[in-house]
Write a structure and sequence with these properties.
The protein is of the alpha+beta class. The chain is built from 5 helices and 18 strands. A hairpin with a 3-residue loop joins strand 8 and strand 9. The protein is globular.
């Protein structure tokens, strides 16, 4: 059984900083939060390879924005953090199916706009070989695909039907979610559905157990009619009367085998 890269990075970040996250952030922001932000920055800014068989190219410059006091605490007590995190990025990119064109670099930045409970990670490429790579295209609808979801809904465990209407829908165990699921094996805030150009895209948000769509572990996936979503012990089936089932390539990132 393969280990989720986020789980592995969370453990290594905690070991790297000797518990600094819990001490500096007072548990309001965890090493896991940083791990998720880092992986998403890598995914969102990856560049396409020259050939279809090649791996996407991960960005090699990462800026971690923190509240000034938090940034100062890391710089004072963990000055080695950026260098060691750069090494972790090398491992993370390989384990997550990316490649690096040059050695990565990490910079900690103080940001007055952030509270002590917040962090932001941006990523970019220092350079890309001319003519060899191009930015990865965003997930979008093609002219052959339906422009808008028609009567979208979720069927939960074959019994509960939930129509989807809002542009952002949160799903989890906590009672403040838009769709509340009483399953002890799912996270309090597990999934988010976002409506883009009339179609819903699923995002796993900081879940402990992960999300599977059609038996593949995903971080992001544009939903199509008949997609089977598994979280914890719960099965959700997405239905959309205006969605074709013969469109391939909707899964955006695999987190495990």
């Amino acid at each position: 059984m393969s280990v989720n890269p986020i789980d592995k990075l969370e453990y290594r970040l905690e070991a790297l900083t000797e518990g600094a996250f819990a001490r500096l952030f007072r548990r309001s922001l965890s090493a896991r939060d940083i791990a998720i932000l880092l992986l998403r920055a890598m995914e969102d800014n990856a560049a396409a390879p020259a050939t279809q068989s090649g791996k996407p190219i991960a960005p090699d410059r990462y800026h971690i924005h923190l509240h000034p006091e938090i940034a100062a605490g890391f710089q004072a007590d963990h000055s080695h953090f950026p260098l060691r995190l750069a090494q972790l990025i090398i491992d993370l990119s390989d384990e997550s199916g990316f490649q690096l064109s040059v050695e990565p670099r990490v910079v900690l930045l103080a940001n007055q706009e952030l509270s002590a409970r917040q962090a932001r990670i941006t990523a970019e490429h220092s350079a890309l070989p001319q003519g060899e790579t191009a930015p990865m295209p965003p997930v979008k609808l093609t002219p052959q695909e339906p422009a808008n979801a028609l009567n979208p809904l979720l069927l939960i465990d074959g019994a509960r039907v939930v129509p989807l209407g809002k542009s952002v829908i949160n799903i989890g165990r906590e009672t403040d979610n838009d769709i509340v699921i009483a399953d002890a094996y799912i996270s309090r805030r597990h999934l988010q559905l976002r409506k883009r150009f009339g179609a819903y895209t699923l995002f796993d948000i900081n879940s402990r157990g992960g999300t599977r769509v059609n038996d593949s572990a995903v971080a992001g996936h544009r939903l199509q009619n008949g997609d089977v979503i598994k979280i914890g012990h719960t099965i959700l089936v997405y239905s959309d009367e205006n969605s074709a089932r013969d469109i391939a390539g909707t899964t955006q990132i695999l987190l495990s085998d």
